[in-house]
Amino acid sequence: MPQPQTELLGTAQADLARAANLLGEGRLVAFPTETVYGLGADARNGVAVAAIYAAKGRPAFNPLIVHVADADAARRYVQWNDIATRLADAFWPGPLTLVLPLREGHGISPLATAGLETLAVRVPAHKSAQGLLRAFDGPLAAPSANPSGRISPTTAAHVLAGLDGRIAAVIDDGHCPVGLESTILALDGTPRLLRAGGIAAEAVEALLGQSLAAPQSPTTPSAPGQLASHYAPQAQVRLNAKTARPGEVLLGFGDMGCDLNLSPGGDLIEAAANLFGHLHQLDATGRPIAVAPVPDHGLGRAINDRLHRAAAPRD
Ligand code: TXA
Ligand code: MG
To answer: Which are the contacts of 223, defined by CB distance < 8 A and separation ≥ 6?
Structure first.
């Protein structure tokens, strides 16, 4: 079956409305920001967020940045604080991402945060990004719109070169003015620089009147997706289980008897969307978790990556 072609949209109100409709249906739409083109999905829709990882061929569930129209919208999803107010007043809208603790009742898919209890939020300054966010009227999870491991896209042509046929649409608004990803600051404690980016760390330090703990190296951004703060259940996890042993709960995949099933039909996108939620639910039983084998291709690799971390021996 031939792959559907990606729709090329412009920046007229009708195009942004079309893009917002596609996003509302759980489809993926690439859009320009001042930093790079983002690959957007409704951050509240786990299946849509899972499709981001599938389209990018991302080998692991790294946490994603959630884009919103303004600071008021950001405050619906995170526990705000005074430092965030000062930074938002100075640098939003713009290429600054703030990592803050999730707020009760936030509604963001755990796949967007990779199961972390914090959320990275950003208010882009780009006119078309703003227009899309207002038309969509909801939070958009968006990594850079490139296949995993490739260079970030700063034109719609770059996006199509990597993702044509794998995403519903791309909004073409020329070159991204910043062309470098946003600066990421963790504000869930003493402010830390997680990734150098479009706003100079010095400008942030000058505003806050304090120096920031630096990322591990100026060229290697710290990658929270790889850190131990990643989600792991309290319970013991046993992989490649065909059946549950006495006392265990069984997390299934495909057509089988089990306590919860990642995807009865064997669909890896659905399984990815269900992964963190199902693990949380089984963990709440307080019983050890046995997990059925999941095919190790496509999103299955990312699922297995997370499952291996969950099952790894810990202190
Ligand atoms: O400029 C940008 O930030 C672009 C445009 C599209 O907005 N987006 C972007 O996304 O660069 P991405 O997926 O390439 O980078 C997201 C990074 C993650 O790798 C991680 O380092 C950090 O954001 N991140 C996301 N959520 C986090 C969290 N809860 N805690 C710590 N870091 C987080
Ligand atoms: Mg990227």
So the answer is: 62
Residue 62 in marked binding region = yes
Ligand 1 center to 212 CA (angstroms): 18
Ligand 1 centroid to Cα of residue 293, in Å, is: 30
Q: Whose CA is nearest to atom 21 of ligand 1?
A: 223
166 labelled ligand-binding: no
Closest residue by Cα to atom 13, ligand 1, is 143
Can you tell me whether residue 272 is helix, strand or coil? Answer: helix
pLDDT digit string, tens, across residues 211-247: 888 655 433 334 444 443 334 677 899 999 999 999 9
Residues in the chain: 315
| Look-up of token digits 């496509």 | 298
CA distance 161 to 271: 28
Read off the pLDDT of residues 10-57 as tens digits, 9 standing for 90 and up. 999 999 999 999 999 999 999 999 999 999 999 999 999 999 999 998
In order of their start, the domains of the chain are 7-222 (3.90.870.10), 237-311 (3.40.50.11030)
Q: Give the gyration radius of the chain's Cα atoms.
A: 20
> Mutate which of 92, 97, 193 to test ligand 1's pocket (most atoms within 8 Å of Cβ)?
97
